[in-house]
Design brief:
alpha+beta; 42% strand
């Protein structure tokens, strides 16, 4: 075969491969929800919790700098499972007690739904807005009247919680 025939065959193969392989259906794009969920994966420690009133004024600011107990930890795992570990000092004599809870979660756009069972969007214990998740910082926001109330003040209507990534 001549070089010209080989070049023509190679060009035809190249064109056919390009036309067949590069269809729009082959493009893969990570959805906003998928990107949010992927960014959440890992372990987070609480930095602070800020309570706001109806007008957006700060009612209370709770920094996690209590050396007696570690800060709250949240870990988003595979298969839509999450753990939450809270620490509390129940008496002055004893060390901190920890409570670890496993929950299911689902992310839809910028909403984080946490609870148990199917259809979490409609049956969630918590509906939390993902305000920001990038690199090592996570910012969540929820309404104070969401159940359970967690002992917020009467003027508090909105709570923002800030976390940093530990792994």
């Amino acid at each position: 075969m001549s070089k010209l025939v080989i070049i023509k065959i190679a060009l035809i193969n190249l064109l056919l491969t390009t036309l067949v392989s590069c269809t729009k259906d082959d493009d893969v794009t990570l959805s906003f929800t998928g990107a949010q969920k992927s960014a959440l994966m890992g372990k987070w420690k609480m930095i602070e919790e800020v309570e706001y009133d109806k007008k957006g004024n700060i009612v209370a600011r709770n920094f996690v700098n209590d050396e007696t107990c570690p800060p709250e930890e949240v870990e988003f795992l595979e298969y839509d499972l999450a753990t939450q570990v809270t620490y509390s000092k129940r008496s002055k004599v004893f060390d901190c007690d920890s409570d670890k809870v496993y929950k299911e979660y689902n992310v839809v756009d910028d909403k984080l739904y946490v609870g148990y069972g199917k259809d979490l969007e409609n049956n969630a214990e918590y509906e939390i807005e993902i305000v920001r998740v990038n690199g090592n910082r996570l910012e969540l926001e929820h309404q104070a009247y969401a159940k359970p109330k967690r002992g917020y003040g009467q003027k508090t209507v909105k709570v923002k919680t800030y976390y940093y990534r530990t792994r």
